[in-house]
Design brief:
Blueprint: H1 2-7, H2 10-22, H3 25-32, H4 36-50, E1 55-56, E2 63-64, H5 66-93, E3 98-104, H6 106-111, H7 113-123, E4 127-133, H8 136-144, E5 150-154, E6 162-176, E7 187-188, E8 197-201, H9 206-217, E9 226-231, H10 234-242, E10 248-251, H11 256-261, E11 265-266, E12 268-269, E13 274-283, H12 290-300, H13 304-308
Parallel strand pairs: 3-4, 3-5, 7-12, 8-9
Antiparallel strand pairs: 1-2, 5-13, 6-10, 6-11, 6-13
Helix pairs in contact: 2-3, 2-4, 2-5, 3-4
């Protein structure tokens, strides 16, 4: 059996635990980003090692067999021991190595993390960071199933079995082309938004939900607005605004380069400022790899204000 154990990497155990926790091969496959057949193959490989069924798949439900329950219990302990071993040896040698899997919502993944990860790897070259992108709900699902080590999310997080720590504040701001009649204005009354062609994100976007919530508090619903375009990504909205097709409301992080190069202009609202938090979320487990603690400490001390104001990167030796 020992030989079998060495053949079995912790990836198979993680896949097995995800199926056990979601009680579904299809849910597990969408969380893990593996096809359903690939998830089934990983579980099948474990069943071949132990020569017994781990799941009972009758009546459209997935239930752990007695052997499955036993393997689930020990898998959690094995994965915890792997993490503890790596952390303790890392502390002993002073070397931070290994890999960390992060789930991040799109604004953070596209506009904050690339600089953070690049600078982290300059300081800790023997590390590997994997990043999965999804909306806040999906990041929380991946965290609860143990598929990611930590998440970075925007907006409100329902605190189910997870710890939420604020990382940095974001502000959603009105943006327009430099040729637009509003360019150069400091403050715009919300009521004036109804008069301008407006470019909005698709339904289900966290940014759109927040914009709608705040504007409706001030008596402006999407029905009263002149919506000229609905687009599926922040990058496509920026391009449309630059071409003068309308104004929009975007994260100041998403437009920091355009502000610097002056290809877009920003303003504020007279009545309200639209703030939201970017937060770090992680499980309540007491076992984390050494790289986890090092990365969390690094990102908490990262000079985000410098990044926002147009300076980029940090001095790794500082």
């Amino acid at each position: 059996m020992l030989k079998h154990f060495h053949d079995m990497d912790d990836h198979k155990l993680r896949v097995f635990c995800t199926v056990a926790e979601t009680k579904s091969f299809s849910k597990a496959s969408s969380i893990i980003h593996l096809s359903q057949p690939a998830v089934s193959l990983q579980v099948q490989a474990l069943e071949e090692i132990y020569e017994t069924k781990l799941f009972d798949r009758s009546n459209n439900t997935v239930v752990l067999t007695s052997a499955g329950k036993l393997l689930y219990k020990y898998s959690k302990e094995i994965l915890s021991l792997y993490a503890n071993t790596e952390r303790e040896i890392g502390k002993l040698t002073g070397l931070v190595k290994g890999s960390l899997t992060i789930g991040a919502s799109s604004t953070i993944a596209n506009y904050l993390l690339p600089s953070v990860i690049a600078d982290f790897r300059k300081t800790h070259p023997k590390t590997k960071i994997n990043m999965l992108v999804g909306n806040t709900k999906r990041v929380v699902d991946m965290l609860n199933s143990g598929y990611i080590d930590l998440g970075l999310v925007e907006g409100d997080v329902t605190r189910q079995k997870i710890i939420v720590d604020k990382l940095v504040q974001d502000e959603l701001i009105p943006v327009m082309a430099p040729t637009h009649s509003w360019a150069g204005r400091e403050a715009i009354p919300i009521s004036e938004l109804a008069e301008e062609p407006f470019i909005l994100r698709e339904e289900g976007s966290g940014t759109r939900q927040m914009i709608e919530k705040h504007l409706s508090k001030h008596g402006l619903s999407p029905q009263h607005m002149n919506i000229s375009l609905i687009l599926g990504s922040t990058e496509s909205i920026k391009a449309a605004v630059e071409q003068g097709m309308g104004i929009s409301i975007l994260s100041r992080w998403a437009v920091r380069k355009e502000m610097h190069s002056e290809t877009l202009k920003k303003a504020s609202f007279s009545e309200v400022r639209l703030f939201r938090d970017f937060s770090i979320v992680h499980g309540k487990n007491s076992y984390f790899p050494h790289i986890f603690e090092t990365f969390v400490e690094f990102i908490n001390q990262y000079p985000f204000d410098d990044l926002l104001s147009g300076k980029s990167g940090i001095n790794p030796s500082a």
